[in-house]
Recover the amino acids of this structure.
């Protein structure tokens, strides 16, 4: 009997495992995307950041500005993703067991994970930008 039940649940376990793997890949891609956008944005704004630093902005101010921009991008992406997820819940309903497709705890947990990943991904470019030498940045132009 145990073998019969185990055989019956094998496909559901595989589907669950596969969804978990794809979810982890999606979070990694989202974090990498935010990192790449923030890195390119900061590379293009080196002159502006140098002027800010020359006028008295502290490193913490620059980090706050850039991480705030990353958080704003994450908020827009999370809102768009939540709308898309609510729109496609009927397709996912057959893969879920004992969970409603529009479970608010699941949506909030996913949003928290993505927001954390985006903020951490924007922190490294922000830290790098806060170390810009104002004189070097101003000499570029």
């Amino acid at each position: 009997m145990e073998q019969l039940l185990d055989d019956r649940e094998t496909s559901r376990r595989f589907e669950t495992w596969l969804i978990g793997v794809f979810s982890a890949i999606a979070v990694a891609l989202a974090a990498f995307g935010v990192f790449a956008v923030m890195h390119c944005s900061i590379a293009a704004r080196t002159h502006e950041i140098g002027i800010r630093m020359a006028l008295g902005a502290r490193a913490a101010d620059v980090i706050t500005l850039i991480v705030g921009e990353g958080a704003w991008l994450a908020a827009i992406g999370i809102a768009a993703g939540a709308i898309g997820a609510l729109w496609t819940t009927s397709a996912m309903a057959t893969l879920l067991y004992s969970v409603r497709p529009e479970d608010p705890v699941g949506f909030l947990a996913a949003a928290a994970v993505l927001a954390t990943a985006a903020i951490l991904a924007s922190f490294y470019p922000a830290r790098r930008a806060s170390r810009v030498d104002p004189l070097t940045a101003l000499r570029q132009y």
